[in-house]
Amino acid sequence: MKAILLPILVLAVFFGCAPKPVALLKEYPNTLMLPASLEMLEGLAEENYDELFEQFRHNCRSSRAKKLYPATCRLSEANLSHTAEFFQNHFTLYQIVPTAEKPILTGYYEPLLYGSLQQSERFKYPLYARPDDMLQIDLAALFPELKNKRVRGRLVGNKVVPYFSRKAINQSDLNASVICYVESKIERFFLEVQGSGRVRLDCGDDIFVGYADQNGHPYRSIGKELINRGILDRKEVSLQSIKAYLLEHPDDVENVLYANPSAVFFTKSH
What's the CATH number for 112-269? Predict the structure, then answer.
């Protein structure tokens, strides 16, 4: 029970579980959200509330969470010694019950990478902040019909050219500060896809990084790249199968990753 309750409770907190009082029944496509069963409530005695509390506090740093749970987020700012009581007093646990043969449930996970503030043989791959020389041009200022259209580039002489692609970024001395260095370029790539995550430093501290900007190049799926090359079948493409291929074929990692010219820059969250 313990192995599955933490993710279930996290989902409950952010996908329908709200500070009391709450509705007793809420419908989603092909699912019902019902009050937790007695068995689930009994299993909560084994839950890791300290870890869950820290996750909730981290999510409260976002403006959306603060808007959804203003009072509860304020309460979470205190250093509590009884974290179980925090959730028992302010949240109601729900269970997700499918009403169709193939219900659809999407969720978010927080990648955990390992890194260091200093570059070394182990930690060699930089997480860049937004480059100082990257321009963002609002086309609507010149062409109103292009409202909300922005391009990113850099100035070369008196011309604006596209900003560096993923490959060029990795092969250049980028005009950007480095937040930290991580040990895996594969995990760094999937951190970019996810948009935010956590880096556990070699000193023992954790830092949180979030999306700051993007280099302006179109996103291209490396899963489709592996399908087109006949390496993976469409039915078996997943995060796990892509990672497995990259780990088993280190000489092909850069070729696969460079198939996606889009690159993400980060900011350190507080």
Answer: 2.40.240.50
